[in-house]
UniProtKB/TrEMBL annotation:
Location(s) in or outside the cell: Cell membrane
Transmembrane annotation, as ranges: 12-33, 39-56, 149-170, 182-202
UniProt cofactor(s): Zn(2+)
Top enzyme class: hydrolase
This protein's encoding gene: htpX
The keyword Transcription regulation appears for this protein: no
The protein, known as: Protease HtpX homolog
Catalytic residues of the enzyme: 140
Topology relative to the membrane: Multi-pass membrane protein
GO cellular component: plasma membrane
Length: 320
């Protein structure tokens, strides 16, 4: 798929900025204030917290989403699709599960390629056709292939370390370094907020990358675009109370379930024949046209783990 080198470059540059940011802060705190290695403790503390998250994260996801592991006898077609995609991705076959929520979506989790899990929700099974479901699972398999779970855990450590530094520097007392410590604390707090924005940016880039990965695994781009469209429409029809029940885990999902209702109107401009799907012809026409993303949606995207859906489908059209 064309254009993936640009995604890789953005991801590596973002992570380089993140690690450079925390390194400079720790060195400033230690050397400028003369506190030696004490502030390196906060880097270690942040890494330890993230290690625990990495270690226990899969169990937390399973518990919060009520995941039930599916045997091949329970879901033969689902297992067959996952096996085909795993072979194409050259990774061990992930475990397959289902979550009982009726919010249509899918997600991947696990510590590594060897301990990967893919899970579909109950609401997705009757909404998508086989090729659309395969494209969705191809996206999730790509997350596992690219080690996105581990990368997300690592980059999430940076804002956490900045927060620990800010808290310690701003509220440390005694000595002649109080003012300088408070100033550095404010700088660390600003770095924390900037770090959070960079983490969100990296998350959005990895969604684009997984979309590209799904196509590289042999899934049809118009089927992925159609699945994304249906998932947004399906989530918009689910009662608000059910969305709120799982909102805390939405970063794992293929789409941002919280923004579904605001994205519906924008996506309607892609479904030219109003049949509820996006065909290869409609996706091809999108390649040569401009899409209109509202200012409010652009701002919301900056604070989201997922790209704006209209831009996401436009990228699928442009890169195929």
């Amino acid at each position: 798929m064309k254009g993936t080198w640009k995604l890789k470059l953005r991801l590596w540059l973002s992570m380089l900025i993140m690690f450079g940011l925390v390194y400079v802060l720790i060195m400033l705190a230690g050397n400028f204030l003369g506190y030696g290695g004490f502030y390196q403790f906060y880097a270690l503390a942040g890494l330890f917290v993230l290690f625990l998250q990495y270690l226990f994260g899969p169990k937390i996801v399973e518990s919060s989403m009520g995941v039930h592991q599916l045997s091949e006898a329970e879901a033969p077609e689902l297992h067959q699709i996952v096996e085909e995609l795993a072979m194409a991705a050259n990774i061990p076959k992930p475990k397959v599960g289902i979550s009982n929520t009726m919010v249509p979506n899918a997600f991947a989790y696990g510590r590594s390629k060897r301990s990967g899990h893919v899970c579909v929700t109950k609401g997705i099974l009757d909404l998508l056709d086989r090729e659309e479901l395969k494209a969705v699972l191809g996206h999730e398999i790509s997350h596992i292939k690219h080690n996105d779970m581990a990368i997300t855990t690592v980059v999430s450590a940076i804002p956490l370390i900045c927060y620990y530094l800010a808290f310690s520097l701003m509220f440390s007392g005694g000595g002649d370094n109080d003012n300088r410590g408070a100033i550095l604390g404010v700088i660390a707090l600003v770095a924390y907020f900037l770090g959070q924005l960079i983490v969100l940016f990296i998350s959005r880039m990895r969604e684009y990358y997984a979309d590209a990965g799904s196509v590289e695994l042999g899934c049809r781009p118009e089927k992925l675009a159609s699945a994304l469209y249906k998932l947004v429409y399906g989530a918009a029809r689910v009662p608000e109370s059910e969305i709120k029940d799982i909102e805390g885990t939405k970063a794992f999902f293929l789409t941002d379930i919280s923004n579904a209702k605001s994205e519906i109107n924008n996506l309607a401009q892609l479904d030219l024949d109003k049949d509820g799907t996006i065909s290869a012809e409609e996706l091809s026409m999108l390649r040569n046209s401009k899409v209109n993303v509202s200012t409010s949606n652009k701002i919301m995207e900056l604070l989201s783990t997922h790209p704006d859906m209209l831009k996401r489908i436009k990228r699928l059209a442009d890169n195929n």
